[in-house]
Design goal:
It is built from 16 helices and 18 strands. By secondary structure, the protein is of the alpha+beta class. The chain has 3 domains: 9-238, Rossmann fold, CATH 3.40.50.620; 255-337, Uridine Diphospho-n-acetylenolpyruvylglucosamine Reductase, domain 3 (2-Layer Sandwich), CATH 3.30.465; 347-447, no CATH class. The strands form 4 sheets. The chain has a 6-stranded mixed β-sheet, sandwiched between helices. Strands 7-8-11-10-9 form a 5-stranded antiparallel β-sheet. The protein has a 4-stranded antiparallel β-sheet with strand order 12-15-16-17, with helices on one face. α1 packs across α2, α5 packs across α8 (207-213) and α10 (225-250) packs across α12 (277-292). The protein is globular, with a radius of gyration of 25 Å. Residues 440-448 have low confidence and may be disordered.
Length: 448
């Protein structure tokens, strides 16, 4: 077998040159060959730029799923310290599920990493996903009948979908997506650095492990990691083009997609029906995610069935999907939060704090507020109180109004910024705001 080409120092700028360094960055390192190579190579790149690894934080999640997991985390800590990094171990505490352990561990891992990033004031998390991981992801999604978004697999940069206080966002960066596992391990061997082997990576009960076992057979058929990665990159280009077309359709200037400050979305039905099928479905996804307040993907088969009905000859109708009520009229399609869903959570906000409430509204209070306020849905009680003292928009359903966030002092409704209650002056005096997320997605513009 031909030895993989080495990773020379001049290649490091190509891998890491577009990423920030220093206090904004953390590395996720488990101790496996891939993540150990990431840590070693990133240190070399920093050294070549006369930068110190001491400003970079290495994070290791101890899942506690194996007897020696604590010792493995300590091994990573020692190597990270030797390379000059700061290091922290993040334990996954509490009971572990009996089934779906890999999915649960992944969710816990990213939750712990995101919280540690937020606490350390960092916004770029580097992971060691490789070309092999990319190929496996594409094949796994192909087996599920995924569409273009799924087959585009993992993007080099993507926001980490973990809710954080104040609307902070962590960017997940994967600089090694174009590098094979074999090249990374060869780089470690060349430098005389070892790594840890996780036995679960070869356990036949896991889908990724079965694909790894079949890698040589797939490569012989032309389905090598390099070729599959090339397909993923080309599909990512196609996805970017479609997303740009959706953004143009949904822009305020186009006038086809209206986001109402009260938390619902209206789409011009005739304009939407003129879109090609894939663009039409993407617009639906955007509206459903926003109005329902859920980041979870909408099942494609259900979305396709809904799209067929909305594009048909019916003049009216109503459906629910992913916490969203969809109402079809002759001229518009309305998307709002599904009736009957439990009201949003109660948040307690102190002076100067901001948070995402109910997955839909960014709420905030002023820095000079003298005591915390509660944020919770108006409900029928709050709406009745509001109806006595304010003129409410007649065209908006009571269901939409009941789901608006109100600012409360115990049982007293202090303000509803969405309808400027009790007055614009009061709302401004307390520094209160409630912004429907699609109108101004905080901190995401910089990811473009």
């Amino acid at each position: 077998m031909t030895s993989p080409p080495p990773i020379e120092p001049e290649a490091l700028a190509q891998l890491f040159g577009r990423l920030p360094a220093g206090h904004r960055v953390a590395l996720a390192v488990s101790g496996g060959g891939d993540s150990t190579a990431l840590m070693v190579l990133f240190a070399e790149w920093l050294s070549a730029r006369a930068l110190s690894p001491a400003e970079v934080l290495v994070l290791t999640v101890d899942h506690g799923l194996r007897l020696n997991s604590g010792a493995e985390a300590q091994w990573v800590a020692r190597l990270a310290t030797t390379l000059g990094y700061r290091h922290a171990i993040l334990p996954w505490l509490g009971p572990k599920p009996v089934t779906g352990i890999q999915a649960a561990a992944r969710a816990a891992r990213y939750g712990l990493l995101a919280q540690a990033m937020y606490a350390a004031g960092r916004d770029h998390l580097l992971t060691a996903h490789t070309a092999d991981d990319q190929a496996e992801t594409l094949l796994m999604r192909l087996a599920r009948g995924s569409g273009l978004d799924g087959l585009a697999a993992m993007a080099p940069l993507t926001p980490l979908e973990v809710p954080l206080a104040g609307g902070a966002t962590v960017v997940l960066a994967r600089p090694l997506l174009g590098v094979t596992k074999a090249r990374l391990e060869a780089a470690l061997v060349r430098r005389g650095i070892g790594w840890l082997d996780d036995s679960s990576n070869t356990a036949a009960r896991f889908e990724r492990s079965r694909l790894r076992a079949a890698a040589e057979t797939l490569a012989a058929l032309g389905l090598s990691a390099d070729k599959l990665g090339l397909s993923a990159r080309r599909l990512q280009r196609a996805r970017a083009a479609l997303e740009a077309a959706v953004a143009a359709f949904c822009s305020a200037e186009a006038g086809h997609y209206r986001v109402d400050a009260l938390g619902y979305i209206a789409i011009d039905r005739a304009a939407w029906r003129r879109l090609p099928d894939d663009l039409a479905l993407r617009v639906l996804v955007k509206a459903i995610a926003a109005a329902g307040g859920t980041p979870s993907p909408v099942p494609l088969a259900k979305l396709e069935r809904l799209g067929e009905v909305l594009a048909g000859s019916r003049r009216s109708g109503s459906w629910t999907l992913a916490r969203t009520a969809i109402k079809l009229g002759p001229e518009r399609i309305i998307f709002e939060r599904e009736p009957g869903r439990a009201p949003g959570p109660e948040l307690i906000l102190g002076a100067g704090q901001r948070a995402l409430w109910d997955g839909r509204f960014w709420v905030a209070v002023g820095a000079k507020l003298d005591r915390p306020l509660a944020v919770r849905a108006l409900g029928e009680c709050g709406l009745s109180q509001l109806n006595k003292d304010a003129s409410l928009p007649a065209a908006v359903s009571r269901q939409i109004m009941r789901g608006l966030p109100g600012f409360w002092q115990e049982t007293a409704l202090l303000a509803v910024p969405s309808v400027r209650f009790p007055s614009e002056a009061v709302v401004r005096r307390y520094g209160l705001s409630a912004v429907f997320a699609p109108m101004a997605p905080p901190d995401l513009e910089r990811l473009a």
